[in-house]
UniProtKB/TrEMBL annotation:
It comes from Nymphaea colorata. The record marks R64 as: Transition state stabilizer. PROSITE patterns: PEROXIDASE_2, PEROXIDASE_4. It comes from the Eukaryota. It catalyses: 2 a phenolic donor + H2O2 = 2 a phenolic radical donor + 2 H2O. Gene3D superfamilies: 1.10.520.10. Ca(2+) binds at D69, V72. This is Plant heme peroxidase family profile domain-containing protein. Binds 2 calcium ions per subunit. The active site is at H68 (proton acceptor). GO terms for molecular function: heme binding; lactoperoxidase activity; metal ion binding. SUPFAM superfamilies: Heme-dependent peroxidases. One of its GO terms (biological process) is response to oxidative stress. Residues 1-26 form the signal peptide.
Length: 73
């Protein structure tokens, strides 16, 4: 009975992972802003290079924002 329960949990986790990966992959696009704002990536890169050394905690906030935006979309 314990083995059956473990296998069921594993199957459910694998299914959830596949659904999540499929949904997240379908919504993300490399070079997303190229058409509407071609300089977006270089602007962000320069901002990060300039401000992270002065405010190291900003790196964590930017990373958290990135993951939040990716998961919410």
């Amino acid at each position: 009975e314990q083995r059956t329960r473990n296998m069921g949990s594993l199957a459910l986790a694998a299914f959830a992972l596949l659904v999540f990966l499929g949904a997240s992959h379908a919504q993300l696009k490399d070079r997303f802003y190229d058409d509407v704002c071609p300089q977006a990536e270089s602007i962000i890169q320069e901002f990060v290079k300039e401000h992270i050394p002065n405010a190291p905690s900003l790196a964590a906030a930017l990373l958290r924002m990135q993951f939040h935006d990716c998961f919410v979309m």
